[in-house]
Automatic annotation (TrEMBL), chain A:
Gene3D superfamilies xrefs: MetI-like
Alphabetical UniProt keywords: Cell membrane, Membrane, Transmembrane, Transmembrane helix, Transport
Entry similarity comment: Belongs to the binding-protein-dependent transport system permease family.
Single GO BP term: transmembrane transport
Main location: membrane
Residue ranges of domain ABC transmembrane type-1 in the record: 74-282
InterPro entries xref list: MetI-like, MetI-like_sf
Organism expressing this protein natively: Caldicellulosiruptor changbaiensis
Membrane topology category: Multi-pass membrane protein
SUPFAM superfamilies associated with the record: MetI-like
Lineage: Bacteria, Bacillati, Bacillota, Bacillota incertae sedis, Caldicellulosiruptorales
Protein's UniProt name: Carbohydrate ABC transporter permease
From TrEMBL, chain B:
GO cellular component, one term: plasma membrane
Domain ABC transmembrane type-1 stretches: 75-292
Example GO BP: transmembrane transport
Taxonomic superkingdom: Bacteria
Record-linked Gene3D superfamilies: MetI-like
Localisation per UniProt entry: Cell membrane
PROSITE patterns with a match to the protein in the record: ABC_TM1
UniProtKB keywords: Cell membrane, Membrane, Transmembrane, Transmembrane helix, Transport
Keyword Transcription regulation attributed: no
Transmembrane portions of the chain: 15-42, 79-103, 115-135, 161-188, 209-233, 271-296
Alphabetized InterPro entries for the sequence: MetI-like, MetI-like_sf, UgpAE/MalFG_permease
Protein name (record): Sugar ABC transporter permease
Entry membrane topology: Multi-pass membrane protein
Organism: Caldicellulosiruptor changbaiensis
Length: 292, 306
C-alpha cells in the first residue's frame, strides 16, 4: 500500500464519518440509561439531558419493591425462547438435511413448497381468524412458540451450509456402514453444522425474545404476557406506576423515569450478552449473504 | 407410471420424508390453509358460519375499501416510505461497509461496527421508549437542548412533516449495522488482484472505491434492492405501530396498509375492510415480485431470485 495524500484524506473523511454514525447509533442508548437514573424532580424542571443532573435510584427501587409482574414476564419469555429455539433449530435443521440429500427426488419441490409461502399469503385477517377460532390458540401459551417457530430463509441457509460443508461421500460411507438416515442426521450432520446452528439459533432466540406482536394478537390474559409486551403495555399506559405496582399509588411517584428504568430492566440482559454473541450474528448474516 | 414413481420414491426414502414432515405440516397449517383464507375477502363474514360457510358477497368488500378513500392514501404512504427507507438504508450501508473495509487501523473500526450493530438487538418497543426520551414535548432531550439555546420547543408528535424525515432516519439507525455487515461480507469476498493491478496503474484510493469496489458491489446491491422492491407493499408494521401507534394527528401521514389492516381487524372489528385490504396487498405483492423477477431474468439470469 502506498500511503499517498489521497489515502490520508480518505482516512480523515472516513474516520469522521464512522464516528458520526457511531455516535448517532449510541447516544440514544446512553440517554436512556442515564435518564433512568435521574431524579424525577430534575427531569420535571430541566428535562432530559445527556449528562446526568441529579442521581437517583427511585425508579429502580419502585420496580424492585414490587417485581412480581416483571419476574413473571421474564419467566414466560425465557421459557418460550428456550423451548421455541430448541424446537425450531432441531426441526429446521432436519428439514434442511432432507432437502440437501441428493437421493431425495422431490427435494427441490419441498424447497419451493417452503419458498412459496414467502411470496404469497392470505393476509392478516384469515390468519388471525383461523388461529384464534379454528385452532383455538387464543390465550394459549403454545401460540407464543408456534407463531414465530420457523423461518423459511433460516431453513434454506441451513441447507446451503450443510451443502457447502458436508461432502456427499461422508453420507455415502455412513450408509455403507449401515447407518440409517436419521442416525446420519444425529451423528454426522448435527455435529458438523455447529457453526451455523449457533448463528441461526441466536437469530431465532432473538426473534422470540423481542416478539411482542404475537401476544398482542393472541394473548389477553395478563399472567401469560411475555416481557416485551408487558413493557409495551407499561410504556403506553397513562399511569405507569399503577400498571407495575398493582396496589395503592402515591402521588409523589416518579412517572417519567419509571418508564425508562422499566425499559432498562427489560433490555439489560440483551445488552449484557451482546459482546459475547455479536460475532455469531455477523457470521450468520455472512452465511445468508451467499445466494441459495 | 408417474404415480407409481411417486409412491416408489416415498417408500424408498420414507424416513427422510418423515423427517421433513414436522416442518411440512407446520407450513400447511400456518401458511397454506390461511392462504386459502383469502376467500374471506369475497365474503360477508360472520363467526357462526366461519370462513368456509359465510355467504359470498362478490367484490363488495373491495368496493367498500376503495371507496373509503383510504386505499390510495395507504398505498401511496407504504410505497413512498419504503422507497425512502430503501434508498437511505442502501446508501448508508454501502458507505459504512466501504469505510470499514478500507480505513486504516483495526480496533476503532471493530468498535464502531459493534456499536452500529447494537440497535438490531433491541425491539421496536424499546426504540419507542428512546423516541419518547428524545422527542417528548415537555421533557425530551431535543427540546431541552432547544430551550437551553433559547429557542421555541417543537412538538414533533403533532407535526406530520417531521416524520417524513424522522422515520427514514430511524430506519437507518435500526438497520445500518446489519446492512453494513451484509455489504462488508461481499467486499471481503472480492479478488485482491483487481486492487493490486489498479494500484500499479496509479489509481488512488477514491478511484479504487468508485471504479472497482462500487461496480463490484453492484450484483449484491441489485439482489438486495430487488428483494426489497418485491416487498414494497409490505410496510414495517412494527416500526409504525410502536413509534406512532394510534396518534390521530399523524394518521393520514403515517398510515400504511399494514396498520390499516391491523386497525380494521383488531380495533374496529371491520373484517370486510381488513380482509379486502389484506388481499389487495397480498395479490399486488405477488404480482410485483413476479414482474420484477421476470424483468430481471430477461436482463440477466444470474440476478433472478428464482
Amino acid at each position: 500500500m502506498r500511503k499517498g495524500k489521497d489515502y490520508i484524506l480518505f482516512n480523515i473523511i472516513g474516520y469522521i464519518f464512522i464516528t458520526i454514525i457511531g455516535m448517532f447509533t449510541f447516544i440514544p442508548f446512553v440517554v436512556l440509561v442515564v435518564s433512568s437514573f435521574a431524579s424525577e424532580n430534575y427531569i420535571i424542571n430541566h428535562g432530559y439531558t445527556l449528562i446526568p443532573g441529579e442521581f437517583s435510584l427511585n425508579a429502580y427501587k419502585l420496580i424492585f419493591q414490587n417485581p412480581q409482574r416483571i419476574i413473571r414476564a421474564y419467566i414466560i419469555t425465557i421459557i418460550v425462547t428456550a423451548v421455541g429455539t430448541s424446537l425450531s433449530l432441531f426441526l429446521s435443521t432436519m428439514a434442511a438435511y432432507v432437502m440437501y440429500r441428493k437421493d431425495v427426488k422431490y427435494r427441490n419441490a419441498l424447497a419451493f413448497f417452503l419458498y412459496f409461502t414467502t411470496l404469497f399469503n392470505g393476509g392478516l385477517a384469515p390468519y388471525y381468524i383461523i388461529l384464534a377460532n379454528y385452532y383455538h390458540l387464543k390465550n394459549n401459551v403454545l401460540v407464543l412458540i408456534l407463531v414465530p417457530l420457523f423461518n423459511v430463509f433460516y431453513i434454506l441457509i441451513l441447507r446451503n451450509f450443510i451443502r457447502g460443508s458436508i461432502p456427499d461421500s461422508l453420507i455415502e460411507s455412513a450408509k455403507i456402514d449401515g447407518a440409517g438416515d436419521f442416525t446420519i442426521f444425529l451423528r454426522i450432520v448435527l455435529p458438523l453444522s455447529k457453526p451455523a446452528l449457533a448463528s441461526i439459533g441466536l437469530f431465532i432466540a432473538l426473534n422470540y425474545w423481542n416478539d411482542w406482536w404475537t401476544p398482542m394478537m393472541f394473548i389477553e390474559k395478563q399472567n401469560l404476557y411475555p416481557l416485551q409486551y408487558t413493557l409495551y403495555l407499561i410504556l403506553s399506559s397513562v399511569n405507569v406506576a399503577a400498571n407495575i405496582l398493582q396496589n395503592v399509588v402515591r402521588i409523589d411517584m416518579p412517572k417519567e423515569t419509571l418508564k425508562l428504568a422499566m425499559t432498562v430492566v427489560a433490555t439489560g440482559p440483551i445488552i449484557f450478552l451482546y459482546p459475547f454473541v455479536q460475532r455469531y450474528f455477523v457470521r450468520g448474516i455472512t452465511l445468508g449473504a451467499v445466494k441459495g | 407410471m408417474q404415480k407409481n414413481g411417486f409412491w416408489q420414491e416415498i417408500k424408498k426414502n420414507k424416513v427422510l420424508y418423515l423427517m421433513f414432515l414436522p416442518v411440512g405440516i407446520y407450513y400447511i397449517l400456518f401458511a397454506y390453509i390461511p392462504m386459502g383464507g383469502i376467500i374471506l375477502a369475497f365474503k360477508e363474514f360472520n363467526y357462526r358460519d366461519g370462513i368456509l360457510f359465510s355467504p359470498w358477497n362478490g367484490f363488495k368488500n373491495f368496493e367498500y375499501f376503495f371507496s373509503s378513500g383510504r386505499a390510495w392514501l395507504v398505498t401511496k404512504n407504504t410505497i413512498l416510505y419504503n422507497l425512502a427507507f430503501l434508498a437511505a438504508y442502501t446508501v448508508f450501508s454501502v458507505a459504512c461497509a466501504i469505510a470499514i473495509a478500507e480505513l486504516a487501523g483495526k480496533i476503532y473500526k471493530k468498535f464502531i461496527q459493534s456499536v452500529m450493530f447494537l440497535p438490531y438487538f433491541v425491539s421496536w418497543v424499546v426504540v419507542s421508549a428512546m423516541m419518547y426520551n428524545f422527542f417528548n414535548y415537555d421533557y425530551g432531550l431535543i427540546n431541552t437542548v432547544i430551550k437551553n439555546f433559547g429557542g421555541q420547543p417543537i412538538d414533533i408528535y403533532s407535526n406530520p412533516i417531521y416524520w417524513y424525515f424522522l422515520l427514514p432516519m430511524l430506519y437507518v439507525w435500526k438497520w445500518v449495522g446489519y446492512g453494513s455487515v451484509l455489504y462488508l461480507a461481499a467486499i471481503m469476498g472480492f479478488d485482491e488482484e483487481c486492487y493490486e493491478a489498479a494500484i500499479i496503474d496509479g489509481a488512488n484510493i477514491f478511484q479504487r472505491i468508485f471504479y472497482i469496489t462500487i461496480p463490484m458491489l453492484k450484483p449484491t446491491m441489485i439482489i438486495l434492492i430487488l428483494l426489497a422492491l418485491g416487498r414494497i407493499l409490505r410496510g414495517e408494521f412494527d416500526m409504525f405501530y410502536q413509534i406512532i401507534g394510534n396518534n390521530g394527528l399523524l394518521l393520514d401521514y403515517t398510515d400504511i396498509i399494514d396498520t390499516l389492516v391491523f386497525r380494521s381487524l383488531m380495533q374496529v372489528q371491520d373484517i370486510g375492510m381488513a380482509s379486502a385490504a389484506g388481499a389487495y396487498q397480498s395479490v399486488l405483492c405477488f404480482v410485483i415480485i413476479m414482474v420484477v423477477n421476470w424483468l430481471v431474468r430477461r436482463y440477466d439470469k444470474d440476478y433472478a431470485l428464482f
